[in-house]
Amino acid sequence: MVQGRRRAAKRKHRVLRWSASTLAVLILGVAGCGYAYYRHLNGNITKGERASGDSKARRAAPNAAGQTPLNILLIGSDSRASAANVRLGGSRDDRGNPPLGDVQMLIHLAADRKSAAVVSIPRDTRVDIPKCTDPKTGTKYPATNDIINTSLARGGAGCTLTTWQNLTGVYIDHWMTIDFAGVVRMADAIGGVEVCVRQNVWDRPLPRVSGGSGLKMKAGRKKVQGEQALQWLRTRHAWGSDPLRARAQHMYLNSMIRTLKQQNVFTDTGRLMGLAEAATKSLTVSEEIGSVKKLYDLGTQLRTVPTDRITMTTMPTVEDPQNENHLVPAGADAEKMWAMLRDDVPFDDKGSTSGKKKADGTKASQDPAAAKDEIGVLVRNATRSSTLGPVDGRAGTLARVLVGKGYSKAVADSGALSEERTVVRYPSADLEGDAQEVAKSLSIPLSSVKRSTDVSGVTLFVGSDWREGTAYPKESAPRAGDLPGTSDEINGSDTGKCMDVYAPYRW
Fold first, then answer.
1. Of 201, 394, 428, 458, which is least packed with CB atoms within 10 Å of its CB?
2. Considering the entire predicted model, what is its pTM?
3. Range of the domain at 64
């Protein structure tokens, strides 16, 4: 709590927009429109480039039924480019500044479409941000290590998407963003969402803590909409920290989804039109889903998931050793969560085990490998992570191991890179067999052998998952529902959740 209060004194107002984005997708999935109105709605939608930075993340392999997971990144922009956003954001001094992505959540829809997970990363989490190019201006931003909300100002939503992919190893299919005014518009369109506090709350400026959302409610349950919904979603001081604000946001989103499922909007054409109008005006989306039809298809898939198979979580974090006001991913706990997403393992234990990862199904190359003493291998140290520095000498150590196994042409590179997982890359099909042979010699799974134009020959990147020893660490397969205890998960059907109010903000 004390740490959250220290952060509070230094931060400006921010707001959650992801819930409105999700609402928009769900609405578009049920709206039926005439062609003229369809064209009108299409004209409302603003689009942008999917990715504006470099990432090695690749799509997940299909399951036995040929299905693949669907991942959507929801970004809340603090843009004050309009008068409405300035009024709602409460800071005219920031008008015209590059927007920050203060709320970021990944929606993971399982390959079998029977469960879904939502993961938040607190805005002040320090991560590696890759080199990005702004698709609108052509401005190039160098790679940096900074808090994750700054990624939006370094190449747009496409840079934020790439940052997430590099951190998690999860391929992200689409992004969606929404601003202050869009939140209010969508909150009004739905007609109210029930929230709950255990004590009277008033999120206001205090003598040594500036800012506050203005949220003022009595203890108990209440429906919020419009600007009051915005206040709920932006409140941070009264909860005590950013991770607790994420919890309040998850509660709102769960309640919103339940509300939509309960409302009889299918037979009310006027209401449908109003919802679709608000949704398309509120969103900016990645270009590959930039039409009503594609959003309709997306919404159709999201609608099929029952509320008791939706799990809301926050990435486990710890205090940043470099800055007490920032956070960093909590090592093994955070990686366990990302592994579950990469392997499409359900966050709950209510379904079948069909979503669990089976044995590595990567096919062996049909191209035979050359003799070991003829295979050139470059070994690179990629053990640096967002929380830990590189382990000196790792490339040399593994190069010597390979030489001892007969790869006399294995050499080490002296540079330090960052890869979450160890990977063997090769540039062309004729070297696939060689790359797989290197992986097998070190007991690295074939699923970690990737073709890439970024290398000129077989290259072993020793990742942050292999920081010590000469034997590749065996990973136990994650189990459904086996989330780390620090993930603060909330089930979508849980109607009993209430927020505790940080004592100074009670009245």
1. 428
2. 0.80
3. 2-356+485-499
